[in-house]
Design brief:
alpha+beta, about 25% strand, about 140 residues
Length: about 140
């Protein structure tokens, strides 16, 4: 564990530094072709994006949702996810209605500890999995 050292804002904005933090914690992490960090946490693939202009880290997880139900039913399902479990925000893909997106944003202004980065990512992955396990009683999400 890294302990409680603070990673400065400028270092957080270097995505390779975030990859290194995760790798030191035995989390599989690599930078994709778009320059985003992709990590596998608790069985969930998490994309990490740094929004430098607003000083936010974004964790995103993508899932497929069946096309066998109407878009209205998908929106009702997403509304239930968002109303019952508020750690992540769920939405249906605008361009692709078979895509279910879970997002979590948090500020890094002033810096973050490595422990905060790793812990928040694990909480996001676990909460997202739990929410889908509890709410997806019709097995719509693959």
């Amino acid at each position: 564990m890294f302990g409680w050292m603070i990673i400065a804002e400028a270092d957080i904005e270097q995505i390779s530094n975030l990859a290194e933090v995760l790798q030191r914690e035995s989390i599989d992490a690599a930078i994709d072709d778009d320059g985003d960090l992709v990590a596998t946490v608790e069985g969930t693939k998490v994309v990490v994006h740094v929004s430098e202009d607003v000083k936010l880290l974004a964790y995103m997880a993508f899932f497929s949702i069946t096309n066998a139900i109407s878009l209205e039913r998908k929106y009702e399902f997403v509304n239930r996810l968002n109303n019952e479990y508020m750690l992540a925000r769920f939405s249906i893909g605008k361009q692709d209605p078979t895509l279910l997106l879970a997002e979590y944003y948090f500020p890094y202004e002033g810096g973050l500890t490595p422990a905060r980065i790793v812990t928040s990512m694990r909480h996001f992955a676990e909460a997202t999995q739990y929410t889908l396990e509890v709410c997806d009683v019709d097995d719509w999400v693959g």
